[in-house]
Amino acid sequence: MKRLPINASFQAPRWLWTVWGLALLLTIGLALNISPWLLGDADWRWRHVPLIDFTNLAYVALLLAIYIGLAAILWRWALQGTHPQRGWWIVAYVSMASLVIQVATQTISSPDPFSSLMLRTTSPFLSGYHDAALEVEDVSDFLRRFPEIAPNYLPHPQRHPPGLILYFVSLERWFEQFPALATQITKILRRYRCEQWPLLYASDAQYAAAAGGLLTLWLNALAAIPLYAAGRSLIGRSAALAAVLITPLIPGYILWAGIWDQAFVIVTTLTLWLLDQALRLHRSWAWWAAGVLLSLASFFTYAMLVLVGFVVIYTLLRLYLPREFQRASLRQGLWNSLGFLIGLTSVWLAYWLAFGVTFIEVYAATTAAHFAMSTRYVLRLIYNPYDFVLFLGYGLGLLWLAAVWQTVTDRTSLDERLTSPRRSLVLAFTLTMSLLTLSGVSRAEVGRVWVFLMPLAVLAAFTVEHGPAHSIRHWIMTAALLGVQLLVMQSVLVLDDAIMPSPRERLRLHQTSLPPTAKPMRSHLGQTIDLAGFEVNKVRLQPGTTLRLTLYWQAFETPARVYTRFVHVYENKAGLSAQHDSPPREGQYPTTCWQPGEIVADTVSLTLPPQAAPGIYQVIVGMYDPAADNQRLPTSGPGAHDSAIVVTQVEVSASASP
Question: pTM to 2 decimals?
Answer without folding.
Answer: 0.83
